[in-house]
Amino acid sequence: MILNLTQIGFTSYEAKAYFALLQKHPAIGYEISKLSRIPTSKIYEALTGLVRKGAIICSATEPTYYSPVDPEIVLQKIEKEYRSKISGLRDGLKQIPAIPDMDITWNLAEYPVIVEKMIEAIGSASEFLLLSLFPEEAEQLKEVIHHAENRKVRVIVGVFGDSSLACKEVINLQSCGFTSVKRIGKRLNVVVSDAKEVVIGEMDRTTGSKGIWTTNPSIVLTAKEYIKHDIWGHFLIDAIGDTAFQDMCSTNKTLSYLIRNR
Protein backbone atom coordinates (compact mmCIF):
# COMPACT_ATOMS: atom_id res chain seq x y z
CA MET A 1 0.00 0.00 0.00
CA ILE A 2 2.81 2.41 0.89
CA LEU A 3 4.56 1.73 -2.41
CA ASN A 4 1.31 2.32 -4.33
CA LEU A 5 0.79 5.61 -2.52
CA THR A 6 4.26 6.81 -3.51
CA GLN A 7 3.37 6.03 -7.14
CA ILE A 8 0.42 8.46 -7.07
CA GLY A 9 2.24 11.46 -5.62
CA PHE A 10 2.92 10.78 -1.93
CA THR A 11 6.46 10.94 -0.59
CA SER A 12 7.64 7.84 1.26
CA TYR A 13 7.22 9.53 4.65
CA GLU A 14 3.79 10.89 3.70
CA ALA A 15 2.64 7.42 2.63
CA LYS A 16 3.88 5.86 5.88
CA ALA A 17 2.27 8.58 8.01
CA TYR A 18 -1.08 8.30 6.22
CA PHE A 19 -0.99 4.51 6.51
CA ALA A 20 -0.25 4.83 10.25
CA LEU A 21 -3.13 7.27 10.79
CA LEU A 22 -5.55 4.90 9.10
CA GLN A 23 -4.60 2.38 11.82
CA LYS A 24 -4.79 4.80 14.76
CA HIS A 25 -6.53 8.16 14.85
CA PRO A 26 -6.69 10.78 16.06
CA ALA A 27 -3.03 10.85 16.99
CA ILE A 28 -0.35 13.39 17.81
CA GLY A 29 2.85 13.71 15.83
CA TYR A 30 4.93 11.73 18.32
CA GLU A 31 2.52 8.76 18.17
CA ILE A 32 2.46 8.80 14.38
CA SER A 33 6.27 8.94 14.32
CA LYS A 34 6.55 5.85 16.51
CA LEU A 35 3.87 3.88 14.68
CA SER A 36 5.20 4.70 11.19
CA ARG A 37 8.88 4.55 12.19
CA ILE A 38 9.45 8.00 10.71
CA PRO A 39 12.22 10.02 12.43
CA THR A 40 10.74 12.69 14.69
CA SER A 41 12.75 15.29 12.78
CA LYS A 42 10.80 14.38 9.60
CA ILE A 43 7.31 13.60 10.87
CA TYR A 44 5.92 17.15 10.91
CA GLU A 45 7.20 17.83 7.39
CA ALA A 46 5.34 14.72 6.24
CA LEU A 47 2.17 15.69 8.13
CA THR A 48 2.25 19.21 6.67
CA GLY A 49 2.52 17.69 3.17
CA LEU A 50 -0.49 15.45 3.85
CA VAL A 51 -2.55 18.43 5.05
CA ARG A 52 -1.70 20.29 1.82
CA LYS A 53 -2.77 17.25 -0.20
CA GLY A 54 -6.09 17.12 1.64
CA ALA A 55 -5.30 13.61 2.88
CA ILE A 56 -5.48 14.44 6.61
CA ILE A 57 -6.97 17.10 8.86
CA CYS A 58 -5.57 18.57 12.07
CA SER A 59 -7.11 20.02 15.20
CA ALA A 60 -6.64 23.58 16.39
CA THR A 61 -5.82 22.35 19.88
CA GLU A 62 -2.51 21.95 21.65
CA PRO A 63 -1.13 19.35 21.23
CA THR A 64 -2.27 19.01 17.63
CA TYR A 65 -4.17 15.87 16.74
CA TYR A 66 -4.27 14.48 13.22
CA SER A 67 -6.93 12.34 11.54
CA PRO A 68 -7.03 10.80 8.05
CA VAL A 69 -9.54 11.83 5.43
CA ASP A 70 -11.57 8.88 4.12
CA PRO A 71 -9.35 7.05 1.55
CA GLU A 72 -12.17 7.01 -1.00
CA ILE A 73 -12.37 10.81 -0.88
CA VAL A 74 -8.57 11.13 -1.11
CA LEU A 75 -8.37 8.79 -4.11
CA GLN A 76 -11.27 10.51 -5.88
CA LYS A 77 -9.48 13.85 -5.48
CA ILE A 78 -6.18 12.42 -6.79
CA GLU A 79 -7.98 10.71 -9.69
CA LYS A 80 -9.69 13.98 -10.65
CA GLU A 81 -6.35 15.83 -10.56
CA TYR A 82 -4.69 13.18 -12.74
CA ARG A 83 -7.54 13.25 -15.25
CA SER A 84 -7.23 17.02 -15.46
CA LYS A 85 -3.45 16.82 -15.98
CA ILE A 86 -3.79 14.11 -18.64
CA SER A 87 -6.46 16.12 -20.44
CA GLY A 88 -4.22 19.18 -20.43
CA LEU A 89 -1.27 17.13 -21.69
CA ARG A 90 -3.36 15.55 -24.43
CA ASP A 91 -4.42 18.95 -25.74
CA GLY A 92 -0.97 20.49 -25.30
CA LEU A 93 0.99 17.69 -26.93
CA LYS A 94 -1.26 17.79 -29.99
CA GLN A 95 -0.32 21.43 -30.52
CA ILE A 96 3.45 20.86 -30.52
CA PRO A 97 4.65 21.52 -34.08
CA ALA A 98 6.43 18.62 -35.74
CA ILE A 99 10.14 19.06 -36.39
CA PRO A 100 10.88 18.88 -40.12
CA ASP A 101 12.51 15.65 -41.27
CA MET A 102 16.14 15.63 -40.24
CA ASP A 103 18.90 14.01 -42.21
CA ILE A 104 20.42 11.26 -40.09
CA THR A 105 23.77 9.56 -40.55
CA TRP A 106 25.04 6.60 -38.54
CA ASN A 107 28.57 5.29 -38.65
CA LEU A 108 28.60 1.49 -38.88
CA ALA A 109 31.35 -0.91 -37.87
CA GLU A 110 31.78 -4.69 -38.08
CA TYR A 111 30.58 -6.91 -40.90
CA PRO A 112 27.38 -8.30 -39.26
CA VAL A 113 26.18 -4.81 -38.28
CA ILE A 114 26.51 -3.48 -41.82
CA VAL A 115 24.80 -6.53 -43.33
CA GLU A 116 21.94 -6.23 -40.82
CA LYS A 117 21.46 -2.55 -41.71
CA MET A 118 21.40 -3.46 -45.40
CA ILE A 119 18.73 -6.07 -44.67
CA GLU A 120 16.65 -3.45 -42.83
CA ALA A 121 16.98 -0.94 -45.68
CA ILE A 122 15.99 -3.53 -48.29
CA GLY A 123 13.08 -4.70 -46.14
CA SER A 124 11.75 -1.15 -45.78
CA ALA A 125 11.67 -0.46 -49.52
CA SER A 126 8.22 -0.05 -51.03
CA GLU A 127 8.96 1.15 -54.56
CA PHE A 128 12.55 0.89 -55.74
CA LEU A 129 15.87 -0.73 -54.84
CA LEU A 130 19.18 0.05 -56.53
CA LEU A 131 21.97 -2.24 -55.34
CA SER A 132 25.68 -2.57 -56.00
CA LEU A 133 26.98 -5.79 -54.41
CA PHE A 134 29.79 -8.28 -54.44
CA PRO A 135 28.86 -11.99 -54.68
CA GLU A 136 29.64 -12.58 -50.97
CA GLU A 137 27.21 -9.88 -49.87
CA ALA A 138 24.66 -10.75 -52.58
CA GLU A 139 24.45 -14.21 -51.04
CA GLN A 140 23.89 -12.70 -47.57
CA LEU A 141 21.10 -10.46 -48.87
CA LYS A 142 19.57 -12.85 -51.41
CA GLU A 143 16.50 -13.83 -49.42
CA VAL A 144 15.41 -10.31 -48.45
CA ILE A 145 16.03 -9.08 -52.04
CA HIS A 146 13.76 -11.80 -53.41
CA HIS A 147 11.11 -10.89 -50.83
CA ALA A 148 11.28 -7.27 -51.96
CA GLU A 149 10.77 -8.22 -55.60
CA ASN A 150 7.84 -10.42 -54.57
CA ARG A 151 6.35 -7.30 -52.94
CA LYS A 152 6.43 -5.65 -56.40
CA VAL A 153 9.45 -3.50 -55.53
CA ARG A 154 11.48 -2.65 -58.65
CA VAL A 155 14.90 -4.19 -58.02
CA ILE A 156 18.01 -3.44 -60.08
CA VAL A 157 21.20 -5.12 -58.89
CA GLY A 158 24.73 -4.76 -60.12
CA VAL A 159 26.84 -7.70 -58.90
CA PHE A 160 30.63 -7.71 -59.23
CA GLY A 161 30.78 -11.35 -60.32
CA ASP A 162 28.59 -14.41 -60.64
CA SER A 163 25.81 -14.82 -58.08
CA SER A 164 22.76 -16.96 -57.40
CA LEU A 165 20.42 -13.96 -57.38
CA ALA A 166 17.35 -14.74 -59.48
CA CYS A 167 16.02 -11.19 -59.82
CA LYS A 168 14.66 -9.92 -63.12
CA GLU A 169 17.32 -7.21 -63.45
CA VAL A 170 20.77 -8.42 -62.38
CA ILE A 171 23.82 -7.02 -64.18
CA ASN A 172 27.20 -8.71 -63.89
CA LEU A 173 29.79 -5.99 -63.21
CA GLN A 174 32.75 -8.33 -62.73
CA SER A 175 35.14 -6.24 -64.81
CA CYS A 176 34.33 -3.16 -62.74
CA GLY A 177 34.65 -5.12 -59.48
CA PHE A 178 38.20 -6.20 -60.23
CA THR A 179 39.45 -2.63 -60.59
CA SER A 180 37.37 -1.50 -57.59
CA VAL A 181 38.84 -4.06 -55.16
CA LYS A 182 42.34 -3.44 -56.50
CA ARG A 183 41.91 0.30 -55.95
CA ILE A 184 40.01 0.32 -52.64
CA GLY A 185 41.33 -2.85 -51.02
CA LYS A 186 37.87 -3.89 -49.84
CA ARG A 187 34.50 -4.77 -51.35
CA LEU A 188 32.41 -1.62 -51.67
CA ASN A 189 28.70 -2.52 -51.37
CA VAL A 190 25.88 -0.02 -51.72
CA VAL A 191 22.15 -0.36 -51.02
CA VAL A 192 19.81 2.49 -52.04
CA SER A 193 16.23 2.10 -50.81
CA ASP A 194 13.39 4.16 -52.34
CA ALA A 195 15.88 6.97 -53.00
CA LYS A 196 15.39 7.88 -49.32
CA GLU A 197 18.15 6.01 -47.53
CA VAL A 198 21.44 4.39 -48.36
CA VAL A 199 23.79 1.90 -46.69
CA ILE A 200 27.39 1.99 -47.88
CA GLY A 201 29.88 -0.56 -46.63
CA GLU A 202 33.53 -1.30 -47.22
CA MET A 203 33.37 -4.99 -46.48
CA ASP A 204 36.05 -7.45 -45.42
CA ARG A 205 35.55 -10.14 -42.80
CA THR A 206 39.31 -10.47 -42.18
CA THR A 207 40.60 -6.92 -41.89
CA GLY A 208 37.37 -5.36 -40.64
CA SER A 209 34.46 -3.52 -42.21
CA LYS A 210 33.13 -0.01 -41.90
CA GLY A 211 30.31 1.95 -43.46
CA ILE A 212 27.44 4.39 -43.01
CA TRP A 213 23.66 4.46 -43.10
CA THR A 214 22.13 7.81 -43.98
CA THR A 215 19.01 9.62 -45.16
CA ASN A 216 21.05 12.62 -46.31
CA PRO A 217 19.66 13.41 -49.81
CA SER A 218 23.06 14.43 -51.21
CA ILE A 219 24.71 11.17 -50.17
CA VAL A 220 21.72 9.12 -51.36
CA LEU A 221 21.91 10.88 -54.74
CA THR A 222 25.68 10.33 -54.97
CA ALA A 223 25.23 6.62 -54.21
CA LYS A 224 22.51 6.31 -56.85
CA GLU A 225 24.66 7.99 -59.47
CA TYR A 226 27.63 5.78 -58.54
CA ILE A 227 25.61 2.62 -59.18
CA LYS A 228 24.08 4.04 -62.36
CA HIS A 229 27.50 4.91 -63.76
CA ASP A 230 28.83 1.42 -63.03
CA ILE A 231 25.88 -0.07 -64.89
CA TRP A 232 26.20 2.38 -67.78
CA GLY A 233 29.92 1.64 -67.89
CA HIS A 234 29.19 -2.07 -68.15
CA PHE A 235 26.94 -1.60 -71.17
CA LEU A 236 29.41 0.83 -72.78
CA ILE A 237 32.26 -1.68 -72.39
CA ASP A 238 30.05 -4.32 -74.00
CA ALA A 239 29.32 -1.91 -76.82
CA ILE A 240 32.94 -0.93 -77.63
CA GLY A 241 34.55 -4.22 -76.63
CA ASP A 242 36.90 -5.07 -73.78
CA THR A 243 40.05 -4.61 -75.87
CA ALA A 244 39.10 -1.07 -76.85
CA PHE A 245 38.21 -0.30 -73.25
CA GLN A 246 41.56 -1.57 -71.92
CA ASP A 247 43.38 0.51 -74.56
CA MET A 248 41.43 3.54 -73.44
CA CYS A 249 42.31 2.90 -69.79
CA SER A 250 46.01 2.66 -70.56
CA THR A 251 46.26 5.60 -73.00
CA ASN A 252 43.95 8.15 -71.35
CA LYS A 253 45.93 9.70 -68.49
CA THR A 254 42.89 10.85 -66.51
CA LEU A 255 41.07 7.51 -66.77
CA SER A 256 44.26 5.61 -66.01
CA TYR A 257 44.88 7.68 -62.88
CA LEU A 258 41.29 7.28 -61.61
CA ILE A 259 41.38 3.50 -62.09
CA ARG A 260 44.71 3.07 -60.32
CA ASN A 261 44.02 5.25 -57.29
CA ARG A 262 41.56 4.97 -54.40
Explained architecture:
Helix 6 runs parallel beside helix 7. A seven-stranded mixed sheet has the order 3-9-8-7-4-5-6, with helices on both faces. A two-stranded antiparallel ribbon has the order 1-2. Strand 8 and strand 9 form a beta hairpin. With 262 residues, it is of the alpha+beta class.
Task: Describe what is shown at a glance.
Helices cover 56% and strands 18% of the residues.
* Proportion of residues in extended strands: 15-25%
User: End-to-end span in angstroms?
Assistant: 69 Å
Report the helical percentage. Answer: 55-70%
Strand line-up of the largest beta sheet: 3-9-8-7-4-5-6
Mean pLDDT: 89
Per the principal axes of the C-alpha atoms, what is the gross shape?
Answer: rod-shaped
The low-confidence runs, each spanning 5 or more residues with pLDDT under 50, are none
Tally of DSSP helical segments: 11
